[in-house]
Amino acid sequence: MCISSHPVPRRSGTCGRAAKIVETCQGKSVLHLGCADWPYTERRIRNGELLHARLARVCRKLIGVDLSAEGIRLLRSLCPDWELHLADACQFEPDDHVDLILASELIEHVEDPGKLLRSLARWAKPGTKLLVTTPNAYALKGTARALLGGEFCHPEHTVMFSTATLSQLLHRTGWAVGAVDYYHLPARRLLAKIPSAFVFMLTRVASPRVADGLIVLASRNGQNGGPSPRNDHA
């Protein structure tokens, strides 16, 4: 049996998803895919949790793209000066070079994640970075829910990624993985705070691979695909 080897980079650890995204995007020109976070746009705006608004305060230039007409309308009503496009991320191409493409909690919603990543690699220039965040297939919370007979999954998700499978897909579609981090989502409900804190401590002490989600930073590798990652025979 062949087992793909994907060691965790030394700098990996658990962190807050939004904070890590904002830190990575600071001072850069950014293309934000799925910027409206529909259908949660109104709630995000009301609670001050809209990621696009946070990015607008730190990015040198920010371009937003979303498929939801209502989501784009709400963002335009919030700030008419934002550059927003109602478009399919697979078909959109910015007029100017961007330093970073942000696809946060997006690829698990699309029917063909490979097509999306390949379309981005097709127009991205060498040096362009891609920041992807997505739920972790090996998240401890999801495993615990499965053991209890349920499934911890958004109703619109079509796929779940692990470090290895996401790295493989990025590699095949023209991207080279540079860094992997893992995010932890704090619990909102009081009864969930204690088990959530336990999971957070476990990811810090044992392995970040059981954290809630993945944060992967990749670079355009200048070609569509390349040699496959090393295989260990077992």
Helix amount: 25-40%
Which overall shape is indicated by the principal axes computed on the Cα atoms? Answer: globular
Helices and strands, in order, run as: EEHEHHEHEEHEHHEHEE
Cα-atom radius of gyration: 18 Å
Our count of domains comes out at 1
Query: What fold name goes in the CATH topology slot?
Result: Rossmann fold
Summed up, the helix count is 8
By CATH, the architecture is named 3-Layer(aba) Sandwich
Task: Outline the low-pLDDT stretches.
Answer: 223-234
What is the CATH class designation?
Answer: Alpha Beta
CATH superfamily: Vaccinia Virus protein VP39
Q: Based on the structure, what is the oligomeric state of the protein chains? A: single chain
Would you mind describing this structure in some detail?
- This protein is of the alpha/beta class.
- The protein contains 8 helices and 10 strands.
- It has helices spanning 17-25, 41-46, 51-56, 69-78, 113-123, 140-147, 163-172, 190-205, and strands at 2-4, 14-15, 29-33, 61-66, 83-86, 100-104, 129-135, 175-183, 213-220, 231-233.
- Strands 2-8-9-7-6-3-4-5 form an 8-stranded mixed beta sheet. It has a two-stranded antiparallel ribbon with strand order 1-10.
- Helix 5 (113-123) links the parallel strand 6 and strand 7.
- The protein starts with a strand and ends with a strand.
- The model is unreliable at 223-234 (pLDDT under 50).
